[in-house]
Amino acid sequence: MKITADTNVLLRLVLADDEAQGLAAVEAMENASLVAISVHSLCELAWVLERLYKKARSEIATAIRGVIEAENVVVNRPAVDAGLAVLDAGGDFADGVIAFDGQWLGGETFVSFDKTAVKLLDGQGIAAQLLK
Questions:
Q1: Alpha-carbon radius of gyration of the chain
Q2: Which pairing describes strands 73-74 and 110-112: parallel, antiparallel, or unpaired?
Q3: Domain PIN, which positions (predicted)?
Q4: What are 37-55's pLDDT values in tens digits?
């Protein structure tokens, strides 16, 4: 079976905080011939891990890498790599993904009120402008 994993499945894999759901998540992932993971689910995963579970960004990056490196997992790798680059630099995973998607769609400059996002993206050579 080819499956798409919801964020709550990814959370059970990463956190292993519910034995029954964790086992079900592992079995579903291992038994699937293909596991599609949406970048949106990874953005939600990062947000929940940081905001609700108070995980450090380095732990979140490790969790995302662990989930996507399984042989049967497919993701939009360039978008995920962009998110991880910003996360590794101390920013939000979603900001990297948003900037990547914007460029892919034809946007030339990432604009935001988020000073940290603009600074980190600019530091990576991505055109970014702080709105005031």
A1: 16
A2: unpaired
A3: 5-100
A4: 999 999 999 999 999 999 9
